[in-house]
Amino acid sequence: MSKGTHRKKYTASWKLPLLFCLLLLLIGIGGLYLKYNHQKKIETKVTSPLKVAGSTDKQTIEPKNTVSATIEQELMKKNFSGTVLVFQHGKISLNKAYGWQNQAKKIYNTVSTQYCIGSVQKGQTAYLIMQAVKADKLFLDEKLSDFYPQIPNSATISIKDMLNMSSGLRIDDKKITALNTTDPKEILAETVKQTTVAKNASYSYQPVNYVLLAGILEQVYQTNYQALFEKNIIKPMKLTETSFYAKENKKQALSYSVSPLGPLYSNTTTSSYADELGTGNVFMSAEDLYHYYQAFFNDHFLTTQNRAELWETYPGEKYAGGIYTMKDNMHSRGVKARFEAVADFSKDGQTGIILLSNVWTQKNGFNAFVQQLYSQVAAAS
Q1: Distance of alpha carbon 25 from alpha carbon 124, whole angstroms
Q2: Which residues contact 374 (CB under 8 A, 6 or more apart)?
Q3: Does one domain contain both 273 and 371?
Q4: Do 57 and 17 reside in the same domain of the chain?
Q5: What confidence tier does 363 reach under pLDDT thresholds 50, 70, 90?
Q6: 126 contacts 307 by C-beta, under 8 angstroms
Q7: Crossing angle of helices 208-221/184-194, nearest 10°?
Q8: Residue 117: its pLDDT value, please?
Q9: What is the pLDDT averaged over residues 53-77?
């Protein structure tokens, strides 16, 4: 055997054990890294008092400025569960979700999670009425008697009176709830049957006005309210995270109340949502609600005159067309089945805050708190 051949064999026999050792070392380091990373994830889940959801979701927008960062901190102090969206000069500066969408299944809220918006939907019903007016299918001074003549005093009640909650219409909601039905026709029929009128008509917040407006829309368009909502709001405004309540819809959050043991889930019946025809059975993500308001201020959907007519209030009052005209801003709020939706925005629709929550944590909800947050957003804009 030559020296060259011996050297090659020796070199090969020396390299093999070294490569084997290096391989074992790399496997060991990889195992330690995976174990450490797994442990960190467990620690984060256990020690974090408030899960920040959607961190890998492309739609999540972290605080872009000081005011948005401050708002996030204040919400976390309140152990907020839901989604908050802040926009300034028509651009989103915060869109983030917190807490549980479904606690039992360990599913966290994301910015795509849909929450019941409650009475905020009244503003959307009002929008559909105004679109019908714009298309000359309906008139604001048209009388309720043209649609439901069997309702007392209907010949003196106008569409605008109903939009302003100044019609004098009243109803015992318990009688509608007792129906325990999800059929809109049955709900409308019983609503008409049970509706009465106060002796002196003045502003009074009565949801029956908007249930009947939903019924009027069905007569005008010869279709059901949900189909009309989908055709005239969801599709043209390109809303992809908006739907009507459906138990099987896994994109819709469950709602909770606070107890000494933590968030407590209590089931809400399907019929209870159905009772809210035109007034509170729609679910939306915060971003979809933002896009809805942006479209609302787009002249393609409603003109400046349309909006002015819709939001003209009853003398001395703030409510008209499903929204409140405050001194410096517009305000909308809905509460249903422990969900709470609050939106405050400037009168040109360019700056504001939207908060959608699925845990009822405070006696009076987030209403006043969101108004304070809006003041911070407006001051910084």
Answers
A1: 64
A2: 329, 344, 345, 352, 353
A3: yes
A4: no
A5: confident
A6: no
A7: 120
A8: 98
A9: 83
107 and 9 inside one domain: no
Q: Please compute Rg for the chain using Cα positions.
A: 28
Residue 7 — pLDDT band, cuts 50, 70, 90? very low
Domain that holds residue 175: 52-380
Same domain, 337 and 214: yes
Structure token pair of residue 335: 């509460």
Q: DSSP readout, 296-309?
A: HTSTTTS-HHHHHH
DSSP conformation class of 154: G
* Distance of alpha carbon 237 from alpha carbon 57, whole angstroms: 22
Tell me: the pLDDT tens digits for 156-167?
A: 999 999 999 999
User: What's the rounded Cα separation, in Å, for the pair 225 and 268?
Assistant: 22
342 & 373 share domain? yes
What distance in Å separates the CA atoms of residue 145 and residue 109, rounded to the nearest whole number? 45
Shared domain check, 242 and 355: yes
CA 172 – CA 160 distance, rounded (Å)? 22
DSSP secondary structure letter of residue 115: E
Question: Whole-angstrom Cα distance, residue 135 to residue 306?
Answer: 11
- Gap between the Cα atoms of 25 and 206, Å rounded: 73
Give one word for 299, left, alpha or beta, with left for phi > 0 and alpha for psi -120 to 50.
Answer: alpha
| Number of domains comprising the chain | 2
pLDDT at residue 261, as a whole number:
81
Mean pLDDT of 321-333: 97
pLDDT computed for residue 58 by the predictor:
56
b/e sequence 183-204, b meaning 16+ C-beta within 10 Å? ebeebbebbbebbebeeebebb
The DSSP 8-state label assigned to residue 49 in this structure reads: S
Amino acid at 272: S
